[in-house]
Design goal:
heterodimer, A: alpha/beta, Rossmann fold, 6-stranded mixed beta sheet, 5-stranded antiparallel beta sheet, 10 helices, globular, B: two-stranded antiparallel sheet, 2 strands, 71% helix
Chain lengths: 246, 320
């Protein structure tokens, strides 16, 4: 569904992505792990077009999307959330998600019809928020932090993605609230390909069907969780021998 | 609890205060019949400020060169009246269309920039157009302006010395343009504009082509500014370089900040306060009236950072 070939990116002498070759089939749930500065978020930025690679290619459903703008990639079915909430503070959650639905349906250019005439888009947005238990009519800035994280996911879902990239979806969320968040992620369609960055290893091993480990801008190893847990190189650079031995 | 569609309907619905406001705009005909010329100037300036509000208040484009479109509209109407015909409504449409065309052309540059660069760029484009009009004196009359025509009437109503027809004309056009602007901001496109204002960098991640939206907003704003410029020409039967000046761009920005940007009525309220204050201050103190305007601006920005309507809105929220 989503793949890359020899993806490279440097900032001056700092190499942030080196020969990245990914192959994410439909319906799989991948965790992307690695120490801070490994290049995980950079990789997401390269996949979504927020950063242009120095060389290499990105494919979605077999179609090359390397030169497409970020918004065009979203329309093709590649959505993402952000590590730090980047929402629309003075719009209500319902307005925000309705906007994403309207953009997807190609109605957002319409300036001559009132918003209430787009009942189907509004209902769909409401249903998405309802499924994630986000209060729809309050302004985003008034929502609790955990609800804002869920709104990030709601926004991505409103684009009807084929591939969903989640950048630390539970970052900053208290442990008890993150369970709600991951239950919501777990309940997403099994047709959806998910790549998520996460530091909590319990979450990683619980939700991922495969794990990709990045170090220094390179993919160190990729495989099923049990294989990654046994991998000596991973133990050395990231997970720590003590924890895995336990 | 309101359902999803009611949430939007509530925001779109006409508030009773809006009806009262528009009824009040008819008061000058009976209360201040000697000030109808000023009232029509206010209506024209309000339309100009409304057009700036669409891009500044709703899309976050800070412009210091918005007079460019006002001037294009004013000169288009002036040239049509001087060389072709005196019927104002068709000329109003053409002036708006031409200003929109200039807006669309320049929008391709404008949308690439934000913040300080954007302010400088809009100012630069405004100055360019001002000097182009100044040097093309064969067409524009240069520093002397465009004169020698008189638009006699609109829809059979004669423009008289009391300014009754002029105010009715300016007010009617303002009202129609206001309804258009209101529809725009309560449409899906308006929601997208608010999204850009709130978080422009996030918009592509929900599949929004922000630049295309901004180009369209800039073009619509240019059309409205052009119509305002044409109104001035029709009601005064003269066009001066001042219509394209930096001062006019700065004034309309001040007016919008005074009234409150992003509130649709901010530009209109700002225009009323600014123009009446200017009229009164310049009458009382012809040489130093800008001092009082400056003081008014400082006071509003210090105590009502979101403008007069923003302050009223905050008070209303507190009282609820």
């Amino acid at each position: 569904m989503l793949s890359t070939k020899n993806l490279n990116k440097s900032f001056g002498s700092l190499v942030v992505a080196q020969d990245i070759a990914l192959e994410l089939p439909q319906g799989r749930r991948y965790a992307l792990i690695g120490p801070n500065g490994a290049g995980k978020t950079t990789l997401m930025n390269l996949l979504t077009g927020m950063l242009a690679p120095d060389s290499g290619q990105v494919f979605l459903g077999g179609e090359e999307i390397t030169r497409l703008r970020p918004d065009a990639r979203v329309k093709k079915g590649l959505a993402r959330t952000f590590q730090i909430n980047t929402l629309f503070p003075q719009l209500s959650a319902l307005e925000t998600v309705t906007l994403a639905v309207l953009e997807r349906e190609g109605h957002a250019h319409n300036w001559w019809r009132g918003l209430p005439r787009f009942g189907a888009a509004i209902d769909e947005a409401h249903a998405i928020l309802d499924s994630l238990k986000v209060p729809p009519t309050r302004e985003t800035k008034e929502l609790a932090y955990g609800q804002q994280r869920l709104l990030e996911i709601a926004l991505a879902l409103a684009t009807r993605p084929k591939v969903l990239l989640l950048d630390e979806p539970a970052a900053g969320v208290p442990k008890d609230e993150s369970a709600v968040l991951f239950d919501a992620i777990d309940g997403l369609s099994r047709e959806l390909t998910i790549l998520f960055i996460e530091h909590d290893m319990d979450v990683v091993f619980r939700f991922a069907s495969r794990i990709i480990v990045m170090v220094g801008g390179r993919i160190l190893v990729e495989g099923p969780p049990e294989e990654i847990a046994r991998d000596e190189r991973v133990r050395e650079v990231y997970l720590g021998k003590t924890r895995l031995a336990a | 609890m309101e359902n999803a569609n009611q949430h939007f309907r509530r925001k779109v619905r006409l508030h009773p205060l809006e009806i009262v406001f528009w009824l009040c705009t008819l008061l000058p005909f009976v209360v201040t019949p000697n000030y109808l010329s000023l009232a029509s100037q206010i209506a024209i300036t309000a339309l100009f400020a409304l057009s700036l509000d669409l891009i500044l208040g709703y899309a976050g484009i800070v412009s210091l060169g918005h007079a460019a479109f006002f001037g294009v509209g004013a000169y288009t109407a002036g040239l049509i009246a001087k060389h072709y015909w005196l019927e104002p409504l068709s000329s109003l449409v053409i002036a708006g269309a031409l200003a929109g065309l200039v807006g669309y052309a320049t929008s391709h540059i404008i949308v690439r920039f934000r913040h300080l660069a954007l302010i400088m760029l809009t100012m630069g484009l405004g100055l360019l157009l001002h000097e182009a009009a100044n040097s093309a004196s064969m067409l524009t009359g240069g520093a002397d302006g465009l004169q020698g025509f008189k638009v006699p009437s609109v829809l059979g109503f004669k423009f008289d010395m009391f300014g009754r027809a002029a105010y009715a004309y300016a007010l009617a056009v303002l009202f129609v343009c206001f309804l258009v602007a209101r529809r725009v901001i309560h449409s899906p496109f308006g929601l997208a504009l608010r999204g850009i204002r709130e978080n422009a960098t996030r918009m592509p991640a929900i599949g929004a082509p922000s630049r295309a939206h901004l180009r369209k907003a800039y073009t619509i704003a240019a059309v409205l500014a052009g119509i305002a410029g044409a109104l001035l020409t029709h009601t005064t039967s003269t066009v001066s370089l001042e219509t394209l000046s930096f001062g006019r761009s700065a004034d309309v920005l001040v007016i919008l900040i005074l009234g409150g940007a992003g509130r649709l009525y901010g530009g209109i309220i700002g225009a009323i306060i600014y123009m009446v204050a200017r009229d009164q201050f310049s009458g009382a103190n012809p040489q130093y009236w800008y001092f009082w305007i400056g003081l008014l601006l400082v006071a509003v920005v210090m105590f009502l950072p979101n403008g007069i309507l923003g302050g009223i809105g905050a008070l209303y929220k507190k009282s609820k």
